[in-house]
Amino acid sequence: MKIIINLFLLITLSYSLSCSAASCHLSGPVENNTITAPNIIIARDAPVGTILSEGYTITGGNNFIACNPATGRKAYITMAYSSTPSTMTNVFETNISGVGLKLAFSFNYEYFYYTLGPGVWNLVDYTGGFGGSSSVNYQLIKTGPITSGTLKSGLAGYMNADNGDLVENVYLNAGTVTALQCSISTKNISAPLGEVPISGFTGIGSTPKSYDFNVGLECDAGVNINVSLSGIQNSETDDASVLALTGAGSTDTADGIGVQILYNSMPLVLNNNVMLKHTAGGQELLQFTARYYQVKSVVKGGKANATATLNITYQ
Questions:
Q1: How far apart (Å, rounded) are the C-alpha atoms in residues 33 and 62?
Q2: Integer angstrom CA distances of residue 257 from 12, 192, 197, 204, 288
Q3: 231 contacts 309 by C-beta, under 8 angstroms
Q4: Coil, strand, or helix at residue 249?
């Protein structure tokens, strides 16, 4: 009830200004433009503020806002799609929880945002009025936890001249938003390689011992599972897949070797994201291998431990 009253007062104020100080009016037909947003797939753990989709529609050219030479020439752009502001500036909640919409009128590299106010676009620099090509830009943005669903389509925003004339409608033709997720059932993993005799290392690149281990996941259908490896690279080789030993350089730590982590027999390169598989949903078991890797022609015995992190992501 309070919102309706406020909007009514704003409309009344705009009308009274148009009677006394309006200097711009519509010349030509009302223009209708449509923004089309694609179907969106997003990981449920994507951070708030992630842009889910963005684009624009070309507008202008079919009509003209004609203005008198007097000062105070204005147009008004109003958000019509939603009346619920999010916690983010100029972003309004949609019918899908966690998905917000931002609209902006763009002209000469300036952006004027659609608000409930309505927002004011000052035409004072355009002596005779405004016409020609411009655009309406949109962004769909993550504002919180997302529930999958279908975005409503319809009127997104509109523009009025300051005498109240409707100049332009902007429509949103939207699709679906699907939030996908995997949960990891194994988070801390040990890969005991045990004792290896120095004689087992026969030259640079030799890998005398390995250990297989699994990472269990429970995934929604349609998820692409990705992995990247983070850790400290062994300084004795240029190979970015070889991890340094913990305590490297210490007298009681082995020298001349490092550790590799492999998936499907391929070493994972540090900080390089790799798509592992597309899942049909349900239980997934990813098998990895840890192994020693010789990096120098001479190997010194000692402790040979290493620590790394497997970053499992999905989209």
A1: 11
A2: 79, 16, 12, 9, 20
A3: yes
A4: coil
Please state, in angstroms and rounded to a whole number, the distance separating the CA atoms of residues 60 and 222: 41
Residue 235: CB atoms within 10 A of its CB come to 12
Q: How far apart are CA 63 and CA 84, in angstroms?
A: 31
Q: How far is CA 290 from the centre of its chain?
A: 33
Q: Using CA atoms, how far apart are residues 247 and 303, in angstroms rounded to an integer?
A: 9
79 and 86 in contact (C-beta within 8 Å)?
Answer: no
Q: Which residues pair with 285 in a beta bridge?
A: 216
| Distance between CA atoms of residues 103 and 90, nearest Å | 8
- Cβ within 8 Å of residue 247, ≥6 positions away: 253, 303, 305
- Enter the tokens of residue 48: 């708030």
The DSSP H or E segment spanning 287 is strand 282-294
Element (H, E) at 7: helix 2-20
Residues 145-196: tens digit of each pLDDT? 998 899 999 999 998 888 888 988 999 999 999 888 887 777 778 888 888 8
What DSSP character marks residue 199?
Answer: G
Count CB atoms within 10 A of the CB of residue 177.
25
Residue 176 sits at the vertex; the CA angle it makes with 117 and 174, to the nearest 5 degrees, is 45
